Amino acid sequence: MNVASLLCDELGKNQVLTKDHPYLAPYSRDESGLGDFHPDCVALCESAEQVSIVLRLAQEHNIPVTPRGAGTGMTGGCLPVYGGIVLSTERMNKIIDIDTKNSIAIVQPGTIVSTIQDAVEEQGLFYPPDPASLKTCSIGGNIASNAGGPRAFKYGVTREYVLGLHMGLMGGELLRCGKQTTKGVTGYDLTAGFVGSEGTFGVVTEATIKLLPLPQSTALLLALFQNETSCSNAIDQLLHQGFHPRAIELMDRNTLMHMTSSDIDLSSHWAVLIELDGEPNTLETITIHIGELLEKNNAIDVIVARDERDRRRLWSIRRACSKSLRNAHQYKISEDICVPRGSIGELFKRIDSIPTPSDLSIATFGHAGDGNLHVNILADSEEATKHIEPFVHALFEHTIALKGTLSGEHGIGLSKKQYMPLEQTPQVIAWQKKWKHMWDPNNLLNPGKIFPDDNGKTFPIASRRCPE
Ligand code: MLT
Ligand code: ZN
């Protein structure tokens, strides 16, 4: 039985990429750098009905299906590790409605997140979640991974904005759950359960998202410090005094050393980027206060964005972190651990204490406001990659010891599944597996993700090479 021809018959030839198709290759990888996993074919669905057809055929013929948004995930969540069908929602990319009266939008899963943000902002509304890939990632993928981003510090993550979902379920059933109101406690919250399920429960075919009023204005400051202790103390003071920025981002010295294109001298410093929003006059006063507070707390320099151009320039430093590290090194593993914010100082100490061979270097940046840091392990030779796994293991052990979690925003996917038992008890894992079994008894939907394999099979970290 040929999967592709089954799909061609039911969907039409233009919506199926067969194994030998020149455009199939990109669907075998994502931004995790875990390697290439070729599917047998790709279904480019254009409607909920077509999603249903794919899920029905897959169930009938016992074929694995891996849902895929825009392929920007960093944990291998959309890699078809067991082959079969990749179900792409990229063609379902319409904003169906922006309801300004009720501050909600109805969107298809393939819509790019920044497209939604731009469209609602034109109407005076605001969709806060802002993962670094917002110009290329899709809302369906953000829902699957419960994406975050810098503004999550003030506004929370994707789950807080998803009011209702239309889902395609394994076997082909279409389910509508949730609500169009911002309050609503009728029955169990199935919608919340689907968010963050990493494409293992069902496939999003439509989402109703909550919008906020667009903040009137924003202010942005970049403060440079000599060391991590000064950064942490300044952030502690800031929050202790009751300020609530929408983002507090931190970049360590090693990350900044890679920022060669910036016109600001960043080398040998640590940096904290602070963004606030609110009413313009109040914001101006608050910005002055925060600038003074940062200087009192040993900031070497505080740069305040004067206009939109400045703002873009300062944000571009932070937005370029991942790319600059990737361009400079042959191997880059980005973790996204999260610790209680007050433990960041201790976490940095513990990172420094992990034995690090001279052929590995560590660069850390991320969302300091909520304790979610991207610890990047960098290597430049195949030989050096064998030291990565022990480093990651030690990092995760320290994270858990500090009452943190393995993943603050990227999800578990393929890359972290073998570490789940470090954080969660067998009982907690068993209940999650029962939950998964309820939606997908034959384990055909995005198999091989989140949970450690019973047969002990893992994907060696040494293969986690960044894509060229
Ligand atoms: C970020 O905050 O820049 C992203 O989550 C991506 C990354 O980990 O590099
Ligand atoms: Zn991040």
What does this structure look like?
With 468 residues, the chain is α+β, with helices and mostly antiparallel strands. It has four domains: 3-90, 2-Layer Sandwich (Uridine Diphospho-n-acetylenolpyruvylglucosamine Reductase, domain 2); 95-213, Uridine Diphospho-n-acetylenolpyruvylglucosamine Reductase, domain 3 (2-Layer Sandwich); 217-322, 2-Layer Sandwich (Alpha-Beta Plaits); 329-411, Alpha-Beta Plaits (2-Layer Sandwich). Helices cover 31% and strands 21% of the residues. The chain has 15 helices and 19 strands. It has helices at residues 3-11, 48-61, 113-121, 139-145, 152-155, 190-194, 228-240, 253-256, 280-296, 308-319, 321-328, 344-353, 388-401, 420-423, 426-439; strands at 16-18, 41-44, 65-68, 85-88, 95-99, 104-107, 125-126, 162-168, 174-178, 203-210, 212-213, 217-225, 247-251, 270-278, 301-304, 331-334, 337-338, 360-367, 372-379. Strands 12, 13, 14, 15, 16, 17, 18 and 19 form an eight-stranded antiparallel β-sheet that branches. A five-stranded antiparallel β-sheet has the order 5-6-10-8-9. It has a four-stranded mixed β-sheet with strand order 1-2-4-3, with helices on one face. A hairpin with a 5-residue loop joins strand 8 and strand 9 (174-178). Helix 1 packs antiparallel against helix 2. The longest helix has 17 residues, at 280-296. The model is unreliable at 459-468 (pLDDT under 50). Residues 132, 366-367, 374, 409 line the site of zinc ion.
